[in-house]
Each structure stands twice: as structure tokens, then as C-alpha cells.
Amino acid sequence: MLAGFGLAAFLDETFFHQILHWHHFYDKSTMAVGLLSDGLFHAFGFTSMVAGLFLMADSLRRGDFIPKRWWGALLLGSGSFQLYDGTIQHKLLGLHQIRYHVVIWPYDLTWNILAAIMIIAGIILMRGRAEVARSGIFRSDADPAT
User: For the whole model, what pTM was predicted?
Assistant: First the structure.
């Protein structure tokens, strides 16, 4: 899930903050404070992604890596981050909006529906027994000749 948080933060920061210039992490102050908040947000996302990839590498090393569960956790983490961002940061705390000077509800609705879809897909992929979800490619007891 950490890699999912980091991925969602990276995509948010890259597209909405830097490329589209729709908002900063914190929009209630000067441009300099907004840029500083973006930098701290980017550092959080990067750290989260690196930690998640280290955990993935460790599970590969131990032979416990389950691709289906990895993708499920990635979607669950990304969707959870996006839902948190759309509800807590955008609405409850009012740190920023998705976009300014437009009718906001279509953006909010799309943002939160996509988050819910990612969460549901992640939960579906995470379900089931590990033995069924495990791919023979990553199993430690898999025959390398096959």
C-alpha cells in the first residue's frame, strides 16, 4: 500500500501541481509557501514509494511475492490516498481544491468515484487464498526450467 500512496502522490504532484498548475498542496498563502508545500508533499510521496518498493524487494527475496496481491495493494493504496485527498484535504481541511474558477462538483465527483473504483478493485485483487493468487514465476519452489 505504501507504493500505492507514493504513486498517487507522484501522479497528483506531477500532473495537477506541476504540469496543469491547478493547485498547490497548500493554497491558502503565498506562491512561495505553495511551492514549499509541494516540495514536502513530493518528498512524502517519494519516500512512500521507495519504502513500498523495498518491501516488495524483500518479499521477492524471501519468495513470498504474490503479484495479484501486489497489484491489489497498489490499487488499494492509490485509491485510499486519493479518497483521503478528495475528502479530508479538499473538503474538511480546505487545503486546496482540485481546480479553481470552475464548477467544482464534476471534478470532485470524478476524483472520488475513481478513488472508490481503485479501492474496490484493490480489495477484489487482495481477496482469496495466497496459494491461489501466487504466480509460479515468483515462487521459490518453482522449477527454473519451466
Answer: 0.79
Mean pLDDT of 23-49: 88
Q: Do residues 116 and 66 make contact, with C-beta atoms less than 8 angstroms apart?
A: no
Name the residue ranges covered by the structural domains of the chain. 2-133
The angle formed by the CA atoms of residues 110, 3 and 32, to the nearest 5 degrees, is 70
pLDDT digits (tens, 9 = 90+) for 85-135: 999 988 898 888 888 889 989 999 999 999 999 999 999 999 876 655 555
CA angle 40, 44, 50 (to 5 degrees): 140
For cell 506562491, what's the residue? 31
Closest CA to 126 of 1, 6, 5, 2: 1
How far is residue 79's CA from residue 82's CA, in Å, rounded to a whole number?
Answer: 5
